[in-house]
User: What shape does this take?
Amino acid sequence: MSIHKRKIKLIEFGLGTAPSDIAFECQISAWTLNNNTEDGDKLYTLCPAGEDTEETDPDYTLDITAFSDWRSDGFSDYLWKHDGETVDFRLDHHPDIPAEHVTWTGQVKIKAPSVGGEARENEVTEVTLVCIGKPEYVRADESS
Assistant: This one.
């Protein structure tokens, strides 16, 4: 199989009760959906089957770096207004490429970000949002 590569250029990202209604992708400069789920410990017995793996709970986070937006209902404003709340999220990756368009949906716990920075630099909001459970993954070409 030959190499396949793609630059990250376009996402659709929203938070709230109707994530498509509150879109923040134009402020975001970087994002990572992290799978921090621990591998379960192996359990051994003296029977023929001999081993099993302990179950673990899913542990996902969504790291976002965005240009700060303190306008009413801007990204930074939204995070501060909803600090501590659990809200729905939707992240569409490569929405402009039908064969590669994938979506993650689920819930995240909002955390107000740290604020500040250096003089004369672009103000940036960096936040890690904890996912509640495992986000649902759907390929756009399989969702019909």
